[in-house]
Design brief:
Blueprint lengths: L3 H33 L3 H13 L1 H12 L4 H24 L2 E2 L2 H21 L2 H4 L5 E2 L1 H27 L2 H8 L6 H33 L3 H26 L3 H26 L2 E2 L4 H19 L3 E2 L1 H21 L2
Antiparallel strand pairs: 1-4, 2-3
Helix pairs in contact: 1-2, 1-8, 1-9, 1-10, 2-11, 3-4, 3-10, 3-11, 4-10, 4-11, 4-12, 4-13, 5-7, 5-11, 5-12, 7-11, 9-10, 10-11, 12-13
Protein name: Calcium/sodium antiporter
Keywords: Membrane, Transmembrane, Transmembrane helix
Membrane topology: Multi-pass membrane protein
Amino acid sequence: MPSLLGYLLLTLLGLAILLAGGDLLVRGAAGLSRRLGISPTVIGLTVVAFGTSAPELAVNVAAALRAGEISFGNIVGSNLANIGLGIGLAALVRPLVIRSVVVRREIPMMLLATAAVLAAALDPWLTGGPALYSRSEGLLFLLIFLVFIYYNLLEIFLNRKNGLAAQAAAEAPRALPVPLALLFFFLGLAGLVGGSEITVRYAVLLSEGLGVPKAFIGFTLIALGTSLPEIATSLVAVYRGETDLLVGNIVGSNIFNFLFILGITACIRPVPVPAQGFSDLAATTFLSVGLLAAAFDRRIKRYEGALFLVFYLTYLGYKVLYLP
């Protein structure tokens, strides 16, 4: 059985695989967007967001089949980490420039998804029902998600109609060939999923071996572990200057988590809302509104990234120290 040093080395190996996977995914996605005439934001909101949300989907389906309560904490904790760590750390590395369409449509869509999830959790006060997401509410989330996908597909069509494809064709000689871009994309996706699995598994074993409280393991490592693909992709994207891809990935992943993954999970088996879940949703809503406010001038500055990071770490400390 590996020692604590072995668990530490395997955790670091998982992180290295994550970073390599994020690098390949960003290269492949950026190459595809240039070759196919699709904006990096749309690629980030759809393909990359879906890919980096794969760990959350896997964890939640497994939890639903076992009737575990990990589903809610995983989704909400991941969305908190995506903004607090993903956007926060990336903006500290380099101020983020954001396309106006993200401010006008995509971040408000994320707020709509957050509001829908928050409203559905208020059943005990609104209808006197149990605090859980029912199958009918799961179906409603999936319907809203289909509207989100429809508008992104419509933007792809309009981009091509308005000549973005021709502009991309002019840049094509500098872009990766489509087969190579696809290879990079899927290799990167595999690296993200595999790296997050290795990192979470051995980080949990390391924490247990060190005697870290279970509350810390559950709230931080599971949610953080499934968010590692988004965070790794964000840091690689900002390093490469692909800030459109970065913001699209974070916003798209949060929409995927709340509407698609929670919707699928609730359809399999109703998802209970734990007693502390309302404070989690309130914190997520606060960060989401903060992201819209920070992005209003189409730029997220370093100090704003620092505020996201400080809020996340403060709330995390509050959860670990004061909540059961």
